[in-house]
Amino acid sequence: MEISLSSLKAAHAILMDGAPFLRQRSVEIEKFDDDLAALVRHMIEIVQARRARGLAAIQIGVPVRVIVATADGKGLAMVNPVITRTLNRFAVEMEGCLSVPPSQWRKVSRPAKCEIEWQDIIGNRHAEGFSGAWARVLQHEIDHLDGTLITDREPA
C-alpha cells in the first residue's frame, strides 16, 4: 500500500475503540520512500504531543504495518514488525491506550520478553530481543497492527 502525504494531513485524530477500521489487519510496507518517512515523523509528533508510549499507524487511519514506541528515554520506529519468539514467563501491568477511554484501561498479562524482526524506514532489516517496558510497549503496538485492542484482552 502506498502512503500519500495528502492523507497524512487528515490523520490527526486518533481513532477510538468502536471504529471498525481499528479491527482490520494492517498491510505490509513495500515502498520505503519520503512518504513513509513523513508518516513516521508525524507519528512521533503525535506520541510526543500526547506524551504516549507508542502509536500504530492504523490508529490514525493509515492501515500499514508501522509503529513508533518509546521506553527508557529512547524512541524506535518499526516497519513490518513481526514477533518471532516470546518467553513463557509473563508480567502483568496496567496498560493504557490512545484508542481506549481511560475508564477501560486495564491490567494486561504479556510475555516478559520477546524477539522481534522489523525494517527501519529505509528498509534495512533488524532483529532484537526486548524485555521490560520495551517488550510491553512493542507487543501492545503490534497488537494494533493485527486489529487487537486491550479491550479484547481479559483483565489480568
TrEMBL record:
Signal peptide: none annotated. Fe cation binds at residues 97, 140, 144. Its cofactor is Fe(2+). The active site is at residue 141. Keywords: Hydrolase, Iron, Metal-binding, Protein biosynthesis. Pfam families: Pep_deformylase. PANTHER family: PEPTIDE DEFORMYLASE. Belongs to the polypeptide deformylase family. This is Peptide deformylase. The gene is def.
